[in-house]
Amino acid sequence: MAKLVEVKVPDIGDFKDVEVIEVLVKPGDRIAKEQSLITVESDKASMEIPSPEAGVVKELAVKLGAKVSQGSLVLKLESGEEEKAPPAPTEKAPVARASAEKSTRFDCDMLVLGAGPGGYSAAFRAADLGMKTVLIERYPVLGGVCLNVGCIPSKALLHTAAVMDAARGLAEHGVAFGAPKIDLERLRAFKDKVVGKLTGGLASMAKMRKVTVVEGLGFFSGPNELKVKTKQGEKTLTFANAIIAAGSQAAKLPFLPEDARIVDSTGALELRSRPKRLLVIGGGIIGLEMGPVYSTLGARLEVVEMLDGLMLGADRDLVAVWQKFNAGRFDNVMLKTKTTKAEALKDGIRVSFDKGEPKLYDMVLASVGRTPNGKKIGAENAGVAVDERGFIGVDSQMRTNVAHIFAIGDVAGQPMLAHKAVHEGHVAAEAAAGHKAHFDARVVPSVAYTDPEIAWVGLTEDEAKQAGAEIGVARFPWAASGRAIANARDEGFTKLIFDAATHRIVGGGIVGAGAGDLVSELALAVEMGADATDIGRTIHPHPTVSESVGMAAELFEGVCTDLPPQRRK
User: Fold this and answer.
1) Catalytic residue among 159, 423, 438, 542
2) Which 3 state secondary structure label does DSSP give 486?
3) What gap in Å lies between CA 402 and CA 400, rounded to an integer?
4) How far apart are CA 64 and CA 68, in angstroms?
5) Is the pTM of this model over 0.85?
């Protein structure tokens, strides 16, 4: 018996008043259950609204450009017997059939352990390919370390600090402000709002894709079985395929006592206090991003590093610009120095080193790297090989030694970067679905979100020299960039590294405000096999700092007219 059904916008999470950007059906159309009716778009994502039943469209209640929220009427549908769904795109059809067969034997076609950037991207891609997907996450929200206590909240604080520093610098431009009034509670609230906006979006997208999210700690109990410790008790899930995206954790120094004034990167983001003296243990990127935030809030900084330089991995000429720009923040930079002891006293943390006298600090930030979580998930019960450091070996499809189990992100090896994990997650999901997908990126860019930023990709100049490679290097100073000068941020430079014989770009580095955004062009150039002429003759908009990329390429070929004449190569 036919009936008239009002189809309304379902629960779409925190989205309200989203715009209808496509109307996919019209009155008279016969539609299948789950067939898409309209597409809506928010500032985070676009999503399709499916039909809850099969039938014939009798009346449309929306049009292009309309604003809808949960409960808004989309159309009226005359419902009858369920129609067969229209054929899916050819790449999805075999996957969907296979998934239906697998689901009779297993709880899901794909189980993803860990909901960081790599994990949720893998789960969403698997779902888009027609696989019944379950996503396991130990925290109440998706996004993992990166989104919740890493990349995103740290960038929110870095932005605030950069604006404060820029405001102070405007005095030289004839614009003076009073001393800033800092409300730590409201600053924390801003950071948390940024995180909440993104995690809410992820939860909505998981729901739209029908990805089942299970909160709890997951441990493999067999090659096709995972036990999850939830608040309601332990439950067992079986799977046809699994992707391990268990991430990493901050490395700990055994001699540091438990004290609220000794923090790792997560603790530093909580902004519990405004210390007057802060010690950063470890001269890597994470500590040197967070240290200056506290400096802007009023702290004097010291850093101690066992090795002979800061931010090792980046070329020394790039780091030198950062050190000169930030020299005023630091009372002491102790290189080739070991931290040997720390004592929690009433008036501070007393820290001893292998040279010099002990010193007293209000706060200590321990930032000595991260360790993968490969040994914390019972991988051996599934037959998955894990090395002594906690890394899981994979092939180019991200498969472990167990063919139906994949590993991505931090547990799958260096570099431990979210953007690498996302691409690996896509490859793993596609490979599990039977696609000929492989992770074959030539380069993975790295960025230190310090001020100024340092970004590099591909072969570094230091690596080339150590390997004895025949290269050519061109540096375009931002002191010759009109936009950088106008921005009063001309301390940086853009460096391109070319194969000496072919003139193809093999790497590059940038130091300066916004370097992390500019390095994407270098990554694309390396991936596409561009040479100096390709880059130099690509018209860049003027006046921009991005021009420095094209000008560096012109400089290499000896045809740059924004610097004194060079010898043409």
Assistant:
1) 542
2) helix
3) 5
4) 11
5) no
